[in-house]
Design goal:
CATH architecture: 3-Layer(aba) Sandwich
Largest sheet: 5 strands, parallel
Strand content: 5-15%
Number of strands: 5
Number of domains: 1
CATH class: Alpha Beta
Distance between the termini: 19 Å
Helix content: 25-40%
Oligomer: single chain
Length: 196
């Protein structure tokens, strides 16, 4: 049985560079992991009324429940995101907020996380990644350190057919995925040892 890796794309645009980068990365995972994009485009905007036990006339959206259960059943989560206005896209922040509730059962807690950011400019989504790291640091998520993945001038990295062919970029992304797989394996082994 393979372990699930949930890949969250930080752009809702069907042809986005973030989605194309993610699609290139999916097959890079070793065979013991199955990486799949978890769509966040249909998640309703977060509203605490959905999770407030004192609010009894509002039901939690089923999209919330499905998303939370998917994250909780994942060996790890990989974000592939652009930068919007010097921060994370609204859809990513919404997903983070949804996974952060209810307080007694946070979906993100202790799940290993990887982050790849990009921009069509030279900064490679630096501000987006740093803001996302800050938001996720609250949940005790094991995270890779250096080297971080900031893909600058992303439109020059992706061919018209959606593939990344620049050998140095492919090798860099593969090395990050390999390190992320090692982190997830280590965490899975640690959990198994704690349950034994």
């Amino acid at each position: 049985m393979t372990e699930r890796v949930s890949v969250i794309v930080g752009s809702l645009r069907r042809g986005s560079y973030a989605r194309k980068i993610a699609q290139n990365v999916l097959p890079m995972f070793p065979p013991e992991f199955t990486a799949e994009i978890v769509e966040i485009r249909d998640l309703p905007l977060y509203n605490f009324d959905y999770d407030d036990p004192e609010v009894t006339d509002v039901a939690t959206p089923p999209e919330y429940t499905r998303f939370r259960e998917t994250i909780k059943s994942s060996a790890g989560v990989l974000f592939v995101t652009p930068e919007n206005n010097r921060t994370i896209p609204a859809c990513v922040k919404n997903a983070v907020d949804i996974g952060s509730k209810p307080n007694s059962d946070v979906a993100w807690k202790n799940i290993p996380v990887g982050i790849m950011s990009h921009s069509i400019g030279r900064m490679g989504g630096y501000s987006s990644q740093k803001n996302l790291r800050l938001a996720l640091s609250y949940f005790d998520m094991p995270t890779l350190g250096q080297p971080e993945v900031f893909l600058s001038q992303s439109r020059t990295l992706v061919e018209p057919d959606g593939t990344i062919t620049q050998e140095s970029t492919v090798e860099f992304l593969q090395s990050y995925v390999d390190r992320f797989a090692e982190l997830m394996t280590s965490e899975l082994d640690e959990r198994a040892g704690a349950q034994a």
